[in-house]
Task: inverse folding
């Protein structure tokens, strides 16, 4: 039996706080998005102890289901025995020379923890990145840094923390490239060829699981699907994203792994972890009673692959587990689990596809999907308003350019940069082609129905 790794550190709670960025004049409130906590600092030296196997966690995962951590996810924390878990292939792994611990240890120095401050949302997010160049270009998921107003990166190889800027990103394909300030001599990850990946190949997912920071953790499995398509959301079921041509694995990809590597048995990166499905819950069993003096016996299994198979009764006769329970007159009870659960799947963007996009970003070639450099913003938030043609203004940054131009909450933007705006998505697409400092024509209708037009200078905003 493998020994468990050290307990995860207790994450700080991020409650209400003052905004990091400019103050908003409040309009109607739009939907709120959750993000994961910031990663913890290293507990050891630059390389730390051998990586520890990830423990099972009863939490919802990113993807097919959820994105994110960053989360989310999502979101999206390192040598290392392997922790058996539902959906894994421990029996098969034991029959081969495949050593997940050695594979994870080999790739680990070429990874980073990515920590993002989401200043306009009073939140933080965490994920993983893959070092592409010795001077600090890093590959990660776009959703790891989406909404970021500042980004810091901790390199696993040398233990140093760097501030990071955004070289560019492709939101549609969930790829981003970061540049670490004043980085040099970094160890890079060994890259493989995803065109050679086959069903049944043994793989290891490595990353910043849970966004805890420090040494990466890992999970082993095998390739269970190729050219897969999913619709992924954040951990709140929002911000849906269609992803195609993915590698599917039964390795336990968790929030915080986002942007990290899926590695083959030779220690080569063959994919960028992007999403993971949620393992099933066992169903709650209906209670039964064998003694009139006992109220009930019932239970729920945990949020993992199987649920607790049995529950022990506690006075006054409640048995915890899933399935049927038997109450005894003396207040003892038991519940038997009927919940089998469904092993989760993880998904990764093939490394060849990710590198094609990364190289386009590194070359500074913008396109309909690739944005180069900082993100621009108007200085307003936009609400979803079904049935409205245009983009409804929610909040306006006080003393910003939009405020000075006279935009107010409830106004409807109808034209941007000479293009008609018929929805918030249209405005987002048009804005994604702009950069801070650009001057654009803006037309809107106020709540009295009067039309206004002005030229406004865009400001630097959070990563779109």
Result:
């Amino acid at each position: 039996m493998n020994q468990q790794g050290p307990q995860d550190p207790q994450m700080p709670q991020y409650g209400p706080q003052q905004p990091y960025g400019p103050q908003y004049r409040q309009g109607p409130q739009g939907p709120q998005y959750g993000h994961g906590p910031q990663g913890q600092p290293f507990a050891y030296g630059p390389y730390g102890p051998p990586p520890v196997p990830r423990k099972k966690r009863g939490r919802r995962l990113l993807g097919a289901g959820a994105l994110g951590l960053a989360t989310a996810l999502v979101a999206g924390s390192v040598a290392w025995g392997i922790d058996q878990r539902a959906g894994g292939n421990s029996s098969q792994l034991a029959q081969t020379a495949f050593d997940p611990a050695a594979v994870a240890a080999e790739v680990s120095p070429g990874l980073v923890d990515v920590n993002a401050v989401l200043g306009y949302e009073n939140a933080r997010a965490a994920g993983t990145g893959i070092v592409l160049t010795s001077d600090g270009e890093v590959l990660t998921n776009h959703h790891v840094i989406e909404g970021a107003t500042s980004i810091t990166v901790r390199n696993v190889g040398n233990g140093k923390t760097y501030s990071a800027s955004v070289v560019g990103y492709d939101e549609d394909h969930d790829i981003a490239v970061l540049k670490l300030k004043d980085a040099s001599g970094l160890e890079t990850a060994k890259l493989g060829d995803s065109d050679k990946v086959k069903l049944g190949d043994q793989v290891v997912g490595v990353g910043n699981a849970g966004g805890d920071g420090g040494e990466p953790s890992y999970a082993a499995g095998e390739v269970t699907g190729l050219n897969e398509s999913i619709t992924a959301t954040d951990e709140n079921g929002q911000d849906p994203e269609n992803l195609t041509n993915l590698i599917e694995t039964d390795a336990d990809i968790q929030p915080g792994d986002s942007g990290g590597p899926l590695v083959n048995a030779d220690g080569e990166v063959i994919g960028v972890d992007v999403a993971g499905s949620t393992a099933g819950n066992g169903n709650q069993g209906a209670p039964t009673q064998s003694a009139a003096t006992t109220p009930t016996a019932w239970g729920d299994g945990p949020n993992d692959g199987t649920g607790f198979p049995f529950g022990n009764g506690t006075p006054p006769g409640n048995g915890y587990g899933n399935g049927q329970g038997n109450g005894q007159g003396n207040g003892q009870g038991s519940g038997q689990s009927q919940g089998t659960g469904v092993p989760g799947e993880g998904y990764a963007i093939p490394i060849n596809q990710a590198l094609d996009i990364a190289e386009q970003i590194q070359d500074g070639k913008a396109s309909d999907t690739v944005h180069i450099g900082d993100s621009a913003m108007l200085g307003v938030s936009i609400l979803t308003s079904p049935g409205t043609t245009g983009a409804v203004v929610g909040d306006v940054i006080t003393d910003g350019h939009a405020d000075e131009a006279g935009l107010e909450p409830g106004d409807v933007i109808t034209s941007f940069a000479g293009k008609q705006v018929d929805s918030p998505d249209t405005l987002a697409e048009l804005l994604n082609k702009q950069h801070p400092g650009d001057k654009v024509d803006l037309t809107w209708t106020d709540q009295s129905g009067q039309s206004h037009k002005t030229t406004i200078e865009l400001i630097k905003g959070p990563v779109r």
